Structures are given as C-alpha cells and as structure tokens.
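Quick one: structure tokens for this chain, please?
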Amino acid sequence: MERMLQAMEVFARIVECENFTRASNLLGIPKASASLLIQQLEVHLQVKLLHRTTRQVRPTSAGMTFYEYCLKILADITDLRSKIGSCAGQASGKLRVELPGDIARQLMPHIARFRLQYPDVSLQVSTPRHSSNLIRDGIDCAVRLGALEDSCHFSRQVGTYQLITVASRLYISRHGCPDTVQSLSSHRTAHASHQGDGRPLEFGFALDGRSIRHPLPESIVFDDMDLLLQYGLQNGGVIQVWDTVATPYLASGRLKEVLAHCRPLARPIHAIYACRTRESMALRVFVDWLSSALESCQTAGSRPTSEDKTRTALEAACTPA
C-alpha cells in the first residue's frame, strides 16, 4: 500500500513538472527510482500513463484520468493526516516556502522562534527574483503582494504592504522636497522591478481615492527592495519602499516621507498554496505564524536602533546650514 502511494505521488509530481529529473529532485529521490516506480505502476495498471520524449513528459489520456484520481486520493490522505495530527496537537512535515526578499529579511528574527515552537516542521525557504509556479516547482506556500490572478490556488490574507515615498534628509536638503506628484519629474528617482517579469515599477499614488501610476525616468532599477532602500539611504534620490522597512529610518531621521498626502493604496499580502497541501497542519500553523510575525514586524519597525541614532547625528553635522 505504501509503495502504491509513493508511486502515485511520484507520478503526480512528474505530470506537474513535465520532467522526471525535476520531479525526482523535488521529491528527494534518485531519477532511476522514479523511473522504476512509474514502470511498475504501468505494469500494475496494465496501461501506458506517460508519453516520454527527450524534452518533455506528457500524460496519456488514461494517465490524465489517473492523475486526477491521484490528486483526490493524495488530498484525502493529507486531510486524514492533518486531522489525526490536530487531535494529537502535533504539526510535522516538510514545507517549501517562497517569500519576497524584503519580507523574508524582516521575518528572520521570528523564524528561529517558529522552529523552536514546531521542531518537527522542516522549512525550506527561497527568495526568487521571479514568481514560481507552485505546482510545477513544488512550492507548498508562497507570499504574493497585491490582487491575486491565479484562482487555482487557495489563499489567505496575512497582512498589508504599504508603500511610502521617501528620500534621505541629506538629499532633501540639497535638492529640495517634492510637494506634488508632478514635481517628482525634476528629482532623481530609483525604482523597483516587478517580481513577475522584471519590468520597472512606476511610482504609484492615491489621489481622490483613486490609484494612479506616475511614469518617471528609470535611470536605475533594482530587483531587490533592500538594495533600493540602501540606495535611498545613500542619498541616491526619491524611492518608494515598504513602510515597515522604512519606519526605523524615519524615526531616526535618516529618511523623510514625502508626498504623504497621496500615499499609494495599501496592497494585501497573501499566503497562497496549492490544493494538495491546503489542509496540512504544518501549513496551517505556518500561515498562522506568518500573520502574527508580520504584525510583529510592523510594530517592531517603529523603534530606531542605536546605529541609526549615531548615523543621524553624524549626518546632521554634515548638513549645510
């Protein structure tokens, strides 16, 4: 029975990945073992399940039918294990998690506490530059910003992502403070890139309750929000960053918010996950923890560090009268 369930899991992952090597890597088994399991499965069922070519693997008509049954059976087993685990008060298993880089770095002080609280949950955390395909890449949970486009996934809102427009105090003292959206055109600006396709993100604002985009020259673009923040701290120009990461620098005086009257509308932070893991107890406790940790990050972000205070004093000494 266990062998059959393993073969079904391997088969389902191969169909999703369209590749034996990628599927076996995600499952942590040798490619030869995956091939053998599929061969034994086809012999047992007396039907060809996969069309194999040198470049791609596709399910046959019978294979697609079998795949749909596999998903249901494997989901039912996940449900059963989750309910049994809930009764026992235990969360266990492996979770592959995908986070945006700036959110991951804010969560770092909290991840150790999650591991202490749930020692039987194994986490594999990645911070890719571009969004992954959850099913194909074997991601159990991913954090996405803004409105969700893929209705095939389950989701839960775990926080909000408020962008604010900021510049260093030294930059403002030298170049002036933009007081209208249009006045930004005469300032140096730096941009983030879109996580999905790498396109530069235009500055966004909210005017009269409407969300608008304001095109500006894209002289420098960063695909890492922390690099964008550091560029702003080094007096590079006006930037838009997550308020959580900017708050300690605003409190210490290193950064100043500009155009606060037309802050962009806050975007939701969602945890999304594939249906095969939607009832996993490990996933549930992780998403609960994620929501709580993000709330803690926003609270902790309001306290300036001693390093920030020292830098502020040094910058004040260098600021022209």
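Residues 61-88 form the longest helix (28 residues).
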